[in-house]
Structure to design on (620 residues):
DNA sequence: TGATATTATGCTCATTTTGAGTATAAATAA
DNA sequence: TTATTTATACTCAAAATGAGCATAATATCA
């Protein structure tokens, strides 16, 4: 008597790596499709004892990457965001996976920030925010007054701080405002906007990718996941650059060093790497035996502000 | 060609409130069943445009509580943890909801910590950890050497800190070790253990509740969700007690006050509440207009330790 | 009524953490 | 050799944190 409708569960995985100074993810190009997609496939309970087993099967078959970290993100089930399924209702479970560049050589990797250009603040606040996004959102807000508080929080307006973790919230607002191509594709806000922001993806895959980036940025601050993006040995500089890639912000080098050294997560190997300047010590990740203390210092702050003492 | 098996999605919600000095959740008693359950029901895509709509329907029909905050927790799909579904594969989506005691009057509410007695540290470290749990886990570990690192992290052994957020990890280990009734029920580790820890629940509902508690403890530290458990006006003492309930730890009163006052999340109403001692100022939650800064100071610490300067 | 218990609140103090620099070292490139 | 580049050490002030003492304002009880 209960849910008689056929339900199909799709498992999609955003696989991230740090490579070539870019935060990249594995994107597949289907013949006849402009938009790319994540590796994905149906959850088949008869064959997959757990969803993670299903995920690993589709990843193995479609992209063959060694995954260093796997984490469930969210289950999306709202109508209209997922066209496909031949009449069946599709529920979409998104996963985040991390890979080391060394273990993830082949295949096509895309720059994640080309899908979310407004998220990369390493060279300062992106111009497009003030020239395109905020004005467009303002226009939209005149029709959608109730969304004002969400925009304020997500985009850090009117005195609110930009929170680098709100990746999904920002993407969702852009979708609702009809500023990303997926919105038009899903038949939402029929008006063809002048500028469609970032590259589109198939199905709900950009939404899943946004969730992945947000979750990773958040997780960095309390678990040592950053090391799942690093090779076996690395300089502190390389670690910092990867962290900056993920967070989308520049960090203070000396303070980053201090933070990481004190965290107990790394140990020196005694070897050094030579590149252009002074050779840097090579470190390695120090497994679990340390009390896992958070890298809370990675919290991005807009600089010191005098505390509001009236 | 894809997943031909019929899949049923169940939506279960752990609804929490703070009442009578207890952290309570809404538990339903089915006739003929010893174990209680959460409100739950199938996701029906034809009727439910989103899962949250489905959740709200089941909550309305089964318990009629006004929800102040709703948040998806996790989607569980592993075999053998969910007996039911008449041959269909059941995927279980868990939600956390918060309610104000005022809006959630009727019905049966259970003390959450009676299901997780090892999680309540307000009066210090629970005895059962050293008298029952850790010895039993040690015995189990002799057969399951690979789980040692997980036990160390989850239960804070061998120098690791107890992390109050690892509620699910602890429950899962107790399940795997056969120390909670659900393990025997699911046919895992047939040996009837002497002491079954905490009260059992139907299906995977204790697992969902564990996830809910862990998520809430974590979220407290970076979003002002605690106020969704508070009445309209409250003293700082009441706020602290609710926080302690959720975290399962005692906090330093003066420092808690300093933290909350500085956070900008509350404003004085000018009125006072009278009880036994000196009357306390009544505060109210100050909505969004403040930059949402984290209540990071809520991070529970085992006290100051001299930093390991060699 | 007055002493006592109870709770709230203000304040201090020593550490630690954090943000922001300056200074120096060790390599390569010109 | 000098300039350039990168790594690393150190300093300093501001802010946050952990711990506690002191005092205020009420109820309760003898």
């Amino acid at each position: 008597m209960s849910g008689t409708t056929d339900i199909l569960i799709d498992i999609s995985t955003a696989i991230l790596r740090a490579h070539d100074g870019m935060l990249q993810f594995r994107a597949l190009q289907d013949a006849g499709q402009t938009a790319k997609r994540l590796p994905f496939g149906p959850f088949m309970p008869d064959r997959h004892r757990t969803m993670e087993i299903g995920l690993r099967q589709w990843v193995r078959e479609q992209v063959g990457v060694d995954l260093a970290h796997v984490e469930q993100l969210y289950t999306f089930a709202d109508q209209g965001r997922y066209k496909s399924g031949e009449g069946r209702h599709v529920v979409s479970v998104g996963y985040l996976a991390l890979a080391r560049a060394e273990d993830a050589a082949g295949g096509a990797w895309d720059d994640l920030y080309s899908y979310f250009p407004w998220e990369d603040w390493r060279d300062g606040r992106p111009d497009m925010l003030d020239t395109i996004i905020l004005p467009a959102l303002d226009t939209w807000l005149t029709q959608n007054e109730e969304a004002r508080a969400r925009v304020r929080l997500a985009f850090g307006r009117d005195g609110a701080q930009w929170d680098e973790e709100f990746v999904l919230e920002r993407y969702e607002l852009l979708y609702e405002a009809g500023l990303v191509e997926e919105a038009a594709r899903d038949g939402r806000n029929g008006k063809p906007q002048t500028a469609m922001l970032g590259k589109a993806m198939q199905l709900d895959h950009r939404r899943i990718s946004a969730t992945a980036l947000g979750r990773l940025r958040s997780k960095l601050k309390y678990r040592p996941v950053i090391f799942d993006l690093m090779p076996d040995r690395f300089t502190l500089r390389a670690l910092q650059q990867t962290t900056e890639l993920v967070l989308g912000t520049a960090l203070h080098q000396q303070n980053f060093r201090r933070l990481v050294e004190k965290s107990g997560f790394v140990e020196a190997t005694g070897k050094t790497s030579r590149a252009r300047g002074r050779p840097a010590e090579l470190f390695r990740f120090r497994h679990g035996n340390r009390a896992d203390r958070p890298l809370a210092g990675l919290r991005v702050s807009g600089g010191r502000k005098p505390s509001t003492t009236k």
About this structure: The radius of gyration of chain B is 21 Å. Chain B is about 30% helix and 20% strand. The CA atoms of residues 100 and 224 of chain B lie 14 Å apart.
